[in-house]
Sequence to fold (64 residues):
Amino acid sequence: MTRGDRGTVVSHLAALRDHAPGAIALYQALAEREIAIALERGTLTPEGAETLRSTLAEPLATRV
Fold:
């Protein structure tokens, strides 16, 4: 999360959807904490944080 790497987050979420869908909520919670820490430290921009948060919300809209 601290790098703001959306592609990695997308890959992680895809793997979780395929292999451990029950872990998505935990991943999202931990990611949100890491985003907050990165913002506090100044290693992630507010724009980067918003991009990651939007990416993290996507699985919720696509779950069946």
Summary: Residues 6-62 form one domain. The helical segments are 6-19, 24-41, 46-62. The chain has a mean pLDDT of 90. Residues 24-41 form the longest helix (18 residues).
